[in-house]
């Protein structure tokens, strides 16, 4: 089934990976969190919670990419100057949580599973990091650019303050960069088995993202922060009068009620 997909998509890895993850992309776009986001229904609490998870995900991804930078599969797609997100996420977290933001990072179990997978492949099969770098960075340079504008507008942020994550100062043209990135992916030498493993890992990467969004949505729905209908807009406004309290309350309630495991790293 997968190999038929690959043949239909041509022999370039970039085409094959896009084809292999097409359905997963549709599912990721249609998670409740992403649907709300696209409608501009994002509150500061939601965004802060998302930033915490992104921080842990990029910390694992970028540490593993750095450590494996000279691996023959990683080296062609290793662009820390242009792509690295960790520092921008740290600045965004500091913007919202203040200087002691590190003590405030809280993530659900799905985020923990995602980072564990990144550590595992970083240690045992670094070539598969290509699938994770593709899923996150090309996503950030695609739909992510729209989400960045929505974030600024919805939260009334001035300039990039608090939303540096979406901003790639080292990338002048996202489209041209993506073209170049795809051709670098296509230059990686792979056996058929390695190619198939990489395509499977890309589907896993999307799945891990979907699970993070679903867990975040669960946490938010308990706090009354999940705005899936108009009525919630009023609720969100009411809560947002004290974002710090609201966040602490939300996480506490989630811990108590869902019992799904919340991790402070
Ligand atoms: C609101 C949700 C989303 C929207 C509106 C969206 C939109 C888009 C669009 C329009 C493209 C095509 C850009 C182009 O062809 O140049 C794209 C590509 C992509 N997106 Fe998304 N996306 C969303 C969520 C996600 C998520 C959650 C992920 C993964 C975690 C993701 C990963 C990707 C990847 C890897 C590509 C590159 C595909 C390729 O050219 O090979 N997207 N997205």
Automatic annotation (TrEMBL):
InterPro entries: Haem_Oase, Haem_Oase-like, Haem_Oase-like_multi-hlx, Haem_oxygenase_CS. One of its GO terms (cellular component) is endoplasmic reticulum. Keywords: Endoplasmic reticulum, Heme, Iron, Membrane, Metal-binding, Oxidoreductase, Transmembrane, Transmembrane helix. Heme b binds at residues 18, 25, 134, 182. It is found in: Endoplasmic reticulum. Pfam families: Heme_oxygenase. GO terms for biological process: heme catabolic process; heme oxidation; response to oxidative stress. The chain crosses the membrane at residues 244-264. It catalyses: heme b + 3 reduced [NADPH--hemoprotein reductase] + 3 O2 = biliverdin IXalpha + CO + Fe(2+) + 3 oxidized [NADPH--hemoprotein reductase] + 3 H2O + H(+). Its main location: endoplasmic reticulum. It comes from the Eukaryota. GO terms for molecular function: heme binding; heme oxygenase (decyclizing) activity; metal ion binding. Its EC number is 1.14.14.18. Belongs to the heme oxygenase family. This is Heme oxygenase.
């Amino acid at each position: 089934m997968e190999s038929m997909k690959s043949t239909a998509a041509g022999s370039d890895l970039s085409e094959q990976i896009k084809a292999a993850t097409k359905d997963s992309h549709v599912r990721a776009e249609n998670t409740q969190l992403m649907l709300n986001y696209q409608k501009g229904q994002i509150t500061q609490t939601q965004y802060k919670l998302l930033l915490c998870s992104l921080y842990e995900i990029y910390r694992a991804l970028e540490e593993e990419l750095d450590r494996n930078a000279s691996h023959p599969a990683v080296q062609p797609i290793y662009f820390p100057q242009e792509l690295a997100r960790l520092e921008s996420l740290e600045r965004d977290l500091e913007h919202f949580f203040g200087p002691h933001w590190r003590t405030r990072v809280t993530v659900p179990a799905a985020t923990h599973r995602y980072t564990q997978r990144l550590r595992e492949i970083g240690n045992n099969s670094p070539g598969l990091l290509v699938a994770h770098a593709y899923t996150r960075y090309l996503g950030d340079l695609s739909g992510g650019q729209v989400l960045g504008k929505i974030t600024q507008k919805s939260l009334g942020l001035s300039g990039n303050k608090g939303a540096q994550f979406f901003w790639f100062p080292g990338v002048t043209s996202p489209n041209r960069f993506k073209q170049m990135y795809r051709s670098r992916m296509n230059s990686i030498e792979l056996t058929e088995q390695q190619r198939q493993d990489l395509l499977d890992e890309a589907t896993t990467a999307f799945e891990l993202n979907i699970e993070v969004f679903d867990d975040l949505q669960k946490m938010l729905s308990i706090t009354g922060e999940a705005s899936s209908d108009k009525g919630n807009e009023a609720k969100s406004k009411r809560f947002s009068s004290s974002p710090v309290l609201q966040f602490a309350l939300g996480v506490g309630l989630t811990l108590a009620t869902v019992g799904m495991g919340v991790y402070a790293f």
